[in-house]
Specification:
single chain, mainly alpha, 5 helices
Length: 113
């Protein structure tokens, strides 16, 4: 009986791209945006809004940190905050869209065959 490991196919470039852009990069963006947002929240004086925004940043992955950075952050300049969130989204979503387009879309002919 052959080993289970001998049945595995070699890793392709598409699989590596898929893992990086679909699984790992969102965690990296969440960590970066949430840490920047929480550091900014630490500088706030009013504890009521700090607790509310802290809950949003921690409990709403990706969108919470980005939303706080764009809407309520005070320590970074507005242009810096827009660049941080915009560049993160571009680095994640543009290659993802191009890869899905090249693969024939999520339900394209290559995915169904």
């Amino acid at each position: 009986m052959p080993s289970l490991f001998s049945l595995a196919q070699p890793v392709t470039a598409f699989q590596i791209w898929f893992v990086v852009y679909l699984y790992l990069l969102p965690f990296l963006l969440y960590a970066a945006w949430a840490s920047l947002a929480l550091l900014d929240l630490g500088e706030r004086a009013d504890s009521a809004s700090r607790a509310g925004w802290g809950a949003v940043v921690v409990l709403v992955p990706l969108l919470g940190g980005a939303w706080y950075l764009l809407a309520a952050a005070t320590t970074l300049r507005r242009s810096s905050r827009i660049a941080i969130v915009g560049a993160g989204l571009c680095v994640w979503l543009l290659p993802l869209a191009v890869g899905l387009w090249l693969a024939g879309g999520p339900l394209g002919p290559k995915a169904l065959s």
